[in-house]
């Protein structure tokens, strides 16, 4: 017997150590447990104490905190590319010949029945290689071999303990299937390569795999790639595996009609996973590029993917309306797609880059993702502890159903709807750059931009947390920069935010509280929804509202009393205000805020300087209002849809920056009855001046009369009109401003159970803000005496109603047309 060793044992060992460190050097029983489960045999999800009740939560645990060792994923035999040529098979349409034993030939079907190595050369234009070796290990060596089968797999592994497919050096090989597949032995064979046993691809040659009507490779057990060059083209999935896909090395190019790499197991949470620790992988997929029901773990390698046409094919677009209003003030849920944007997904299937139903862990490697849907998506947790991710996404850059954590590595999201989204977002290290058409980061425990009823209030979520304790974070967002529906905490790191230019969003936004205890931040944006860190902060924070809009790329800096620059940043978009905080900022000191050549003096009399301008919660234009006695068909909806917190700005610029005294008496009258609310020391457009604003209080200056049109604010933050009355609606009806519709004359109330009113024949209203087409153009009726045309105001004192007063705060607040004062 002549043994061919393409690589020496020493060389093979070096490859193993280089590609995936720590691979076992002895033959072992194949390990099929999830990467997240380590040696325990129990998945992280199953072992998590934070499970929310689902079988697989994808929560991070102590087991997943440490990197998965590749020796759990591969054996030394997986890398062995030496082979024996004792049995050779010369394929030919005119008659296949065999030298050696263990092979039977039946026309164009060649069957391997015994353990050992088998060398294949030649070609079959319509034939098949079958492995039927019981529980034995078989090595199929391809040396310029080509097999095409019409109606079945070119390589069919019917039975074996494990099969190794090895390509010889410089060889070009082909396994292809054409036409519609025909079942064999009651088996639904649907791939050019179809394996019912574990299969490993290795070698130094090239293998081309193609399927005209189905999948490229189908593996019912584990599939591994440890070397070689592979080109896979398929009408459906490129690689479809039941237990796991493990890649240590090789060059893999997949072009697929549906998923590129797909691993799914409905019976075990420990299976259906993908593990990558090396290689160069390029995927162009019609649906998800990499999709797993189990964990996805990446420790090394280069992965480049384009899914569903890339980000240019995505349909997520930020809408100023933040979702549509309910039916006549009723609240009912939208689907998940509609809850995050105003348009339906144009893709017929999922178009994500990397997708897992469980846990995604990236500790190394380079990932370049262009996806129509989320670039990285997990229904459980996402953990980035190293590596480099560059993403362009038609939806979220990275989305986690539970926890999204970044502790190291580089995350560069150049295009997205929302940059990072998860119930808990934790940044403790690394470099994070985000460009988003909506929120830069959004901590949300559920989809909260669906429909609301009257005066749709922003939902808060105590489980939602956005925590930044380290790293360098840069955000450029058209929506909120840093947004948490619950708690926003900054305790470390360096953060720069170029926030929104529209008045319906803020550079930072919290549903419950925002706290700073460390780190450095400049968050610039519009003033209409400006928010500062709260009084429970232990580090000083300044919210400064400038005299007007400042041009993009104008540098903001903060200097101490000695002129030392503590922090500086040039926002990428125009801005009206900035939140600034560094460890040096503290009560009792004077600082200078600069914007270009203009300087403004800030005296800190407490840790927090400058109040936010927003109150009330609002959102988009209401949906189609249900009709009661009013028979007009042009109702405007249920008094505003759900959206972001409303920005009814009633504080003047001076009040925003603190109402302390100023020595410039010419511009700061002392008459307590004066109505002049011009900012003290206002910088002119042609000169550089320094103003002195102290922070004796962060409330509006009450020494003079309040603007005539500014309503008072009630305890729950909803704007009230004189004597607590809300604005008048059609026919003089007055909805309650607590999120509930008004009582109807006979005491009836619209259903608030999340369902719209019943329509003829069980029809449901469309989610485009228009009523459904009913017989003869009729409009669905509300209960007798029901509220007719719902006032279509944007969120009822929300959204874009209020603009921050400019030009030194001399402008009066303007209320919507028709609003009672």
Structure characterization notes:
The chain is mainly beta and 821 residues long. It has a domain of 135 residues. Helices cover 3% and strands 36% of the residues. The strands form 5 sheets. The chain has a 27-stranded mixed sheet that branches. It has a 16-stranded mixed sheet with strand order 5-6-8-10-13-16-19-22-24-26-29-32-35-37-39-41, with no helix packed on it. A hairpin with a 2-residue loop joins strand 47 and strand 48. The radius of gyration is 32 Å and the shape is elongated. The relative contact order is 0.08.
Helix content: under 10%
Question: How far is it from the N-terminal to the C-terminal residue, by CA?
Answer: 100 Å
Judged by helices, strands and strand pairing, the structural class is mainly beta
**Uncertain residue segments:** 1-19, 24-32, 37-67, 318-347, 447-457, 614-656, 658-730, 732-744, 747-757, 762-772, 782-821
Radius of gyration: 32 Å
Oligomer: single chain
What is the overall pLDDT average?
A: 75
Beta-strand content estimate: 35-45%
- Principal-axis shape: elongated
Secondary-structure map with pairings?
Blueprint: E1 3-4, H1 9-19, H2 44-47, H3 62-65, H4 76-79, E2 83-84, E3 87-91, E4 97-99, E5 103-106, E6 109-112, E7 116-124, E8 128-132, E9 137-150, E10 155-159, E11 162-167, E12 172-178, E13 191-195, E14 198-203, E15 206-211, E16 215-219, E17 222-225, E18 229-234, E19 239-241, E20 244-247, E21 251-256, E22 261-263, E23 273-285, E24 290-292, E25 296-307, E26 354-356, E27 359-362, E28 366-371, E29 376-378, E30 381-384, E31 388-393, E32 398-400, E33 403-406, E34 410-415, E35 420-422, E36 424-436, E37 441-443, E38 465-477, E39 482-484, E40 487-498, E41 508-510, E42 513-525, E43 541-550, E44 556-559, E45 565-569, E46 575-581, E47 590-595, E48 598-603, E49 608-609, H5 653-656, E50 690-694, E51 712-713, E52 719-720
Parallel strand pairs: 3-7, 6-8, 7-9, 8-10, 9-11, 9-12, 10-13, 11-14, 12-15, 13-16, 14-17, 15-18, 16-19, 17-20, 18-21, 19-22, 20-23, 21-23, 22-24, 23-25, 24-26, 25-27, 25-28, 26-29, 27-30, 28-31, 29-32, 30-33, 31-34, 32-35, 33-36, 34-36, 35-37, 36-38, 37-39, 38-40, 39-41, 40-42, 43-49, 48-50
Antiparallel strand pairs: 1-2, 3-4, 5-6, 42-46, 43-46, 44-45, 44-47, 47-48, 51-52
């Amino acid at each position: 017997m002549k043994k061919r060793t393409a690589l020496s044992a020493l060389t093979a060992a070096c490859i193993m150590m280089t590609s995936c460190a720590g691979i076992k050097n002895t033959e072992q029983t194949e390990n099929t447990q999830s990467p997240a489960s380590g040696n325990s045999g129990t998945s992280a999800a199953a072992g998590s104490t934070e499970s929310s009740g689902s079988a697989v939560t994808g929560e991070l645990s102590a087991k997943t905190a440490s990197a998965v060792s590749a020796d759990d994923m591969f054996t030394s035999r997986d890398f062995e590319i030496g082979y024996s040529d004792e049995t050779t098979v010369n394929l030919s349409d005119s008659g296949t010949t065999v030298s050696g034993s263990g092979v039977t030939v039946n026309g164009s079907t060649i069957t391997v029945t015994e353990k050992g190595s088998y060398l294949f050369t030649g070609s079959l234009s319509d034939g098949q290689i079958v492995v039927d070796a019981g529980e034995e290990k078989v090595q199929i060596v391809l040396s310029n071999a080509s097999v095409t089968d019409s109606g079945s797999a070119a390589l069919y592994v019917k039975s074996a303990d494990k099969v190794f497919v090895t390509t010889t050096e410089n060889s070009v090989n082909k396994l292809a299937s054409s036409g519609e597949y025909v079942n064999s032995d009651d088996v639904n064979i649907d791939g050019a390569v179809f394996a019912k046993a574990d299969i490993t691809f290795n070698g130094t040659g090239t293998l081309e795999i193609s399927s005209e009507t189905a999948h490229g490779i189908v593996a019912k057990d584990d599939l591994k790639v440890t070397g070689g060059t592979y080109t896979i083209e398929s009408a459906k999935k490129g690689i479809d595996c039941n237990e796991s896909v493990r890649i240590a090395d090789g060059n893999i190019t997949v072009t697929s009609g549906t998923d590129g790499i797909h691993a799914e197991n409905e019976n075990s949470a420990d299976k259906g996973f993908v593990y990558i620790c090396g290689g160069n992988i390029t995927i162009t997929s019609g649906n998800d590029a990499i999709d797993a029901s189990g964990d996805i773990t990446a420790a090394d390698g280069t992965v480049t993917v384009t899914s569903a046409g890339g980000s240019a094919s995505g349909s997520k677009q930020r809408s100023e309306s933040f979702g549509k209003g309910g039916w006549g003030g009723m609240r009912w849920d939208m689907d998940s797609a509609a809850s995050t944007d105003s348009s339906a997904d144009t893709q017929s299937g999922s178009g994500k880059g990397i997708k897992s139903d469980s846990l995604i862990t990236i500790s190394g490697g380079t990932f370049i993702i262009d996806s129509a849907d989320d670039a990285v998506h997990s229904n459980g947790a996402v953990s980035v502890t190293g590596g480099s991710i560059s993403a362009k996404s038609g939806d979220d850059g990275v989305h986690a159903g539970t926890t999204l954590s970044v502790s190291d590595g580089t995350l560069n999201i150049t295009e997205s709807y929302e940059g990072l989204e998860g119930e808990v977002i934790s940044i403790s290290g690394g470099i994070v750059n985000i460009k988003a058409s909506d929120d830069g980061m959004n901590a949300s425990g559920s989809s909260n931009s669906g429909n609301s009823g009257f005066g749709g209030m922003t939902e808060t979520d105590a489980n939602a947390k956005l925590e930044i304790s380290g790293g360098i974070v840069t955000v450029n967002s058209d929506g909120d920069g840093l947004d948490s529906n619950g708690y926003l905490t900054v305790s470390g790191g360096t953060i720069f935010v170029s926030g929104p230019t529209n008045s319906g969003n803020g550079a930072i936004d919290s549903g419950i509280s925002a706290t700073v205890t460390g780190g450095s931040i400049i968050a610039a944006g519009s003033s209409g929804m400006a928010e500062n860190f709260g009084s429970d902060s232990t580090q000083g924070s300044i919210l400064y509202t400038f005299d007007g809009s400042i041009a993009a790329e104008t540098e903001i800096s903060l200097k101490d009393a000695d002129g030392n620059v503590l922090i500086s940043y040039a926002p990428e978009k125009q801005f009206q205000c900035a939140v600034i905080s560094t460890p040096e900022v503290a009560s009792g000191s004077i600082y200078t805020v600069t914007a270009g050549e203009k300087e403004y003096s800030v005296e800190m009399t407490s840790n927090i300087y400058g109040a936010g301008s927003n109150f009330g919660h609002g959102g988009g234009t209401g949906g189609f209002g249900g009709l009661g006695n009013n028979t007009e068909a042009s109702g405007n909806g249920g008094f505003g849809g759900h959206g972001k917190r409303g920005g009814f700005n009633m504080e003047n610029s001076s009040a925003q920056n603190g109402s302390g005294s100023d020595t410039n008496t010419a511009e700061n009258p002392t008459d307590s009855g004066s109505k002049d609310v011009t900012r003290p020391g206002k910088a002119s457009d042609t000169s550089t001046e320094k103003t002195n604003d102290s922070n004796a209080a962060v409330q509006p200056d009450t020494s003079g009369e309040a603007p005539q049109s500014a309503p008072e604010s009630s305890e729950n933050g909803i704007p009230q009109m004189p004597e607590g009355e809300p604005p008048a609606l059609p026919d003089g009806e007055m909805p309650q401003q607590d999120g509930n519709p008004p009582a109807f004359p006979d005491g009836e109330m619209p259903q608030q159970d999340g369902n719209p009113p019943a329509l003829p024949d069980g029809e449901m209203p469309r989610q485009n803000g228009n009523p459904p087409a009913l017989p003869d153009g009729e409009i669905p009726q509300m209960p007798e005496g029901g509220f007719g045309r719902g006032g279509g105001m944007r969120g009822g004192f929300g959204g874009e109603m209020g603009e921050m007063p400019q030009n030194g705060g001399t402008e009066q607040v303007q209320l919507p047309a028709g609003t009672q004062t």
